[in-house]
């Protein structure tokens, strides 16, 4: 009887530890959803929005850093993701221009504070373009509190310019500096379309500033999917140079897995970028 009691106690304790570990896990997504262009043929937004949001509900995403989201798409996503709220503004101010919104599970997270700044020499100036950028580019960030674990952490979401080489370089420097100033030593997650290959200078700047790429830090069996993230509606001849979407982490965070979700059904694509899905444990190394 004594041995049975000890066994039951051990099982209960083990179950409690497992449950606690699960409660600290976050499923984080970085997803360039492609703006709603009427030039996209069978891949126009109306043909993809149900599939795209269903995928996020199915994987039980806790946090989604979106890029290229126009206001009408934002409304569609909010309607089709009823268990989520979002933060962020358009890059031209208010609801104008593309958003880099953060969607979050409203039952799990409390937002302590949030802001948007511009990737330019004048980060607080609305719609300011930086360096040789073709378009204004923004960073939307929030300080979250996890209602389940009680942990706090920051999430920064961005989209670097697609044409300006100097802009991408300086944006990497600026976002690194801003994150260090805002978040200090708190755990940080960074999601985004950085328009930068793994061996590029902007990527090197981020890695040299202490940001870690789970694609590189995890074991091979913990990473799944194609070696590229940008597909351009055609996967032919895509290589690791087309891995331009990332989820970085810094501080007291342990990555558990990383997936590049190859969302393709014949000639139909979930987006011209595949979503990046990371499972992370906050407060554990």
UniProtKB/TrEMBL annotation:
Keywords: Endonuclease, Hydrolase, Nuclease, Signal. InterPro entries: CCR4/nocturin_mRNA_transcr, Endo/exonu/phosph_ase_sf, Endo/exonuclease/phosphatase. It comes from the Bacteria. Residues 30-273 form the Endonuclease/exonuclease/phosphatase domain. SUPFAM superfamilies: DNase I-like (SSF56219). GO terms for molecular function: endonuclease activity. Residues 1-21 form the signal peptide. Pfam families: Exo_endo_phos (PF03372). Transmembrane segments: none annotated. CDD domains: EEP-1 (cd09083). The keyword Amino-acid biosynthesis does not apply. This is Endonuclease/exonuclease/phosphatase family protein. It comes from Formosa undariae.
């Amino acid at each position: 009887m004594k041995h049975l009691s000890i066994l039951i106690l051990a099982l209960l304790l083990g179950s409690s530890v497992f449950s606690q570990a699960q409660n600290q896990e976050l499923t984080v997504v970085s997803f360039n959803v492609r703006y709603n262009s009427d030039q996209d043929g069978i891949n126009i937004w109306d043909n993809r929005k149900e599939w795209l949001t269903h995928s996020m509900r199915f994987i039980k995403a806790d946090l989604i850093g979106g890029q290229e989201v126009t206001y009408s798409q934002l409304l569609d996503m909010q309607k089709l993701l009823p268990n989520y709220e979002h933060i962020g503004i358009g890059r031209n101010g208010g609801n104008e221009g593309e958003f880099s919104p953060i969607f979050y599970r409203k039952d799990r997270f409390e937002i302590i504070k949030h802001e948007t700044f511009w990737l330019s020499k004048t980060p607080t100036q609305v719609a300011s373009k930086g360096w040789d950028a073709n378009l204004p580019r923004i960073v939307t960030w929030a300080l979250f509190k996890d209602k389940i674990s009680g942990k706090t952490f920051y999430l920064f979401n961005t989209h670097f310019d697609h044409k300006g080489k100097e802009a991408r370089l300086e944006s990497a420097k600026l976002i690194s500096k801003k994150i260090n100033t805002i978040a200090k030593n708190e755990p940080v997650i960074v999601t985004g379309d950085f328009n930068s290959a793994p061996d590029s200078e902007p990527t090197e700047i981020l890695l040299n500033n202490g940001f870690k790429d789970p694609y590189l830090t995890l074991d091979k069996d913990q990473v799944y999917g194609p070696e590229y993230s940008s597909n351009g509606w055609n996967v032919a001849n895509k290589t690791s140079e087309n891995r331009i979407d990332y989820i970085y982490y810094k501080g007291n965070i342990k990555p558990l897995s990383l997936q590049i979700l190859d969302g393709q059904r014949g000639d139909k694509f979930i987006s011209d970028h595949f979503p990046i899905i990371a499972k992370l444990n906050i407060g554990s190394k």
